[in-house]
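ESCALATION

Customer reports they have been waiting on this structure for their group meeting. Please prioritize. Original submission:
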Amino acid sequence: MARPDRRDTPHHRTGAAVAAHTVVLSLLLLVCLPVLGTAQAPDAPEGDEAPEGPDRGGFTLLTTIGFAIQKDAKLKGAGLDGTNIGVAGLNLGIGGFVTDQVALLLRFSGMTADIGPTLQTSGFFGPSLQYWPSDRWSIEAGIGGGFSDIDNVSNDGGLGLLVAVGRTVFNSGSHNLHVGLEYVPVFTDPKMVHGFGLVFGWQLL
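Update from on-call: job pushed to the front of the queue and completed.
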C-alpha cells in the first residue's frame, strides 16, 4: 500500500493557510505603515518651537508579531524540509531606559513553523540591550537561553542570541509603532536552529 503524504493532511493545509495569511498581512504592514509614518504635519507658524522627538525614559514595554522563516538542518535527516514558514511572536520585552538612548530589557522572542506532521517552535529568552541611534531607528542585541521544540518529538536547549533592528513608522508621545527584523539563532546539538522574523511592533517608551 502506498504511504500517504503527510504534507496533504488537514493539519498541514491549515498551517499553510495561516502562514500565507501572515505573509500577506506582514507585507501590507510594511507597505502601508511607512507611508503613514512619513506623513508630515502642517508647517508650524514661524516662531513656534519644532515638535519634540519621542519621549523615551523610565519603564518600557515591547511587543512584536509577524512572519517567520525557520531553518533547521536536522530536519533534512528526518526527510522533512529544513526551511519552513511560520509565525513570529507574540514576542515580549519589559525593562527600562537607563538613558534616553539605551534601554535594558528582559526579552522573549519565539517563532513557530509548520514542518509537515507537526509544529516546531524555537526562540530566545534573556536580557537584551536596546540602542536608539536616532528617533527613527533602534538596534537590539541579547544573549541568554535558547530552545527548539518539536511537538511530541524532541525538546532541545542551548545558548540563544537575539539581534533585532526596528524602524519607527508612527510615534505619539510614549507610544511607538515600528516594523523590524529579528534574528534568533539557537545553538542546539548537533546543529543550530535559525529563526528570522519580519515583525510589526508597539513599544511604550
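Sent to customer with the following note: Helices lie at 10-37.
Escalation resolved.
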